[in-house]
Amino acid sequence: MALKIRLARAGSKKRPYYHIVVADVRSPRDGRFIETVGAWNPMLPKEGERVTLNEDRIKHWLGHGAQPTDRVLRFLDTAGIAKRPERSNPKKAEPGKKAQERIAEARQREAEAAAAAAEAAAAPAGEAPAEEAASE
After folding, report:
1. Is 72 exposed, middle or buried (0-12, 13-18, 19+ CB in 10 A)?
2. Per-residue pLDDT tens for 74-89?
């Protein structure tokens, strides 16, 4: 039987409260579980006691092969029970394909405008009055 240490939602609408439970992976999120090993109240301020853990029981279940979910692993890492490996995703901060296309088009328009301005500035001073004289 594969076990997970995961969150089970409780609380009312728009007032979440989560129980940290040990459950079979096949059971639904808020369904049957084996044991409650903690709680998380995200409505409390971050400085307060948002997370409560029963460390002995969590260590027991980790010893029996229970795998914590990512969110629960964050809690266990801050409590010093389990180590959460660092993740590196350098592409996450990059804009999407369409946004990159828009940025490239904007750079191209800026380069063309700068080139046109440079040509206008580089034109000889003698030609400009001759064109004005011809149009008069």
Report:
1. buried
2. 999 999 999 988 888 8
